[in-house]
Amino acid sequence: MVSLPKFKIESTHNLEEYLPSLGLKTAFDTQRADFSGINGTVPLYIGKVLQKAMISLNEKGVEAAAATAVTILASSTAEIPPAFRADHPFAFFLVKSKKEVLFSGTFLGGE
């Protein structure tokens, strides 16, 4: 028989300090980064890379998830986009193509 306690572990890691030592240096450089394939008019660079992971174990089973977020910033002053404020519940979808949904969810409020 195996007996385990219920637990939930979450972690968040800032990857900017590790990625340059793995060879990803110019992507963080405001002058040398080349993301012209994303936006050919405004010079872009990577500003932040966060990775979050979670594992939860309870009487119903195990749940695990991981996500990585990359913030791409403009290295020059660009036109300010119109303001958008989602201050109410909404649904969201992260899609790769019209037929491939990678993540979906709803935001009901809170943090």
TrEMBL record:
InterPro entries with a match to the protein in the record: Serpin_dom, Serpin_fam, Serpin_sf, Serpin_sf_1, Serpin_sf_2
Domain Serpin: start-end pairs: 2-107
Coiled-coil residues: none
Q: Which Gene3D superfamilies match?
A: Alpha-1-antitrypsin, domain 1 (2.30.39.10), Antithrombin, subunit I, domain 2 (3.30.497.10)
* Entry similarity comment: Belongs to the serpin family.
Protein name per Swiss-Prot or TrEMBL: Serpin domain-containing protein
Q: What organism is the protein native to?
A: Heterodera trifolii
What lineage does the source organism belong to?
Answer: Eukaryota, Metazoa, Ecdysozoa, Nematoda, Chromadorea
